[in-house]
Amino acid sequence: MKEKYYLFGGSGHGKVVADILISSNINVHTVLDDHPAESTLLNIPIISTKSYVPTPNDQFIVAIGNNWIRKKIVETHAFSYFKAIAPAANVSQFAEVGEGTMIMPKAVVNAGTKLGKHCIMNSGSIVEHDCVLGDYVHVSPNAAVAGHCTIGEGSQIGMGASVIQCLTIGKWAIIGAGAVIIRDVPDYAVVVGNPGRIIKFNKPE
Ligand SMILES: CC(=O)SCCNC(=O)CCNC(=O)[C@H](O)C(C)(C)COP(=O)(O)OP(=O)(O)OC[C@H]1O[C@@H](n2cnc3c(N)ncnc32)[C@H](O)[C@@H]1OP(=O)(O)O
């Protein structure tokens, strides 16, 4: 039976992911969203989760920008997942990309890097060679991560931030927009500025 492609989440991030899939000639069957602002997303019908009737070859992407909510949705549904990689992204053939991960136009993922599951590489973001990103990481637009870095589960690198080489960012950390990170960052830390400084700790649970 032919695969059917679904998005979970019909807001702004879902719109960008739908656009990438349309550009890749992947026909999105339906969007699931229990609180949609509109009845369609780029002309794709939106239905509630209660109206969804599963078939064996359904493939999903959780197209929700919030890392914690994305994780909770993945953990509460037994879906199969596919990846969304924009035709205008540059992903090395020597990189690994986990299921459910979304890679936006002009993003770069270089050789030897491993992206976890359900990550977001947003527009124009760069992850250099030999990095390891955990599941649910979001590298925001125009952020750059230099070679040999490790980023823990659920962390967000804010827009335009820079992370120098060989650093470890813990899990569920937030790097503020425009920050310059020159030292390791512990789990749950919120870091801003140049050089980056911790302003608080924030556990999403
Ligand atoms: C496609 C898309 O739209 S993807 C979305 C991408 N979004 C981002 O990259 C946003 C990243 N988020 C940020 O930069 C946020 O400002 C955060 C998470 C760092 C902090 O947010 P909050 O927890 O709400 O902190 P809040 O706004 O209260 O600021 C706390 C202090 O940090 C400062 N601060 C906040 N963000 C930054 C920043 N990016 N750079 C420098 N200082 C900052 C504030 O000025 C404030 O300082 P003060 O206490 O001296 O007044």
Automatic annotation (TrEMBL):
It comes from the Bacteria. The record marks 130 as: Increases basicity of active site His. Keywords: Acyltransferase, Repeat, Transferase. Its EC number is 2.3.1.30. Residues 6-75 form the PglD N-terminal domain. It is an enzyme of class 2 (transferase). The active site is at 129 (proton acceptor). Substrate binds at residues 11-13, 65. Belongs to the transferase hexapeptide repeat family. NCBIfam families: NeuD_NnaD (TIGR03570). This is Acetyltransferase. It comes from Kaistella antarctica. The lineage of its organism: Bacteria, Pseudomonadati, Bacteroidota, Flavobacteriia, Flavobacteriales.
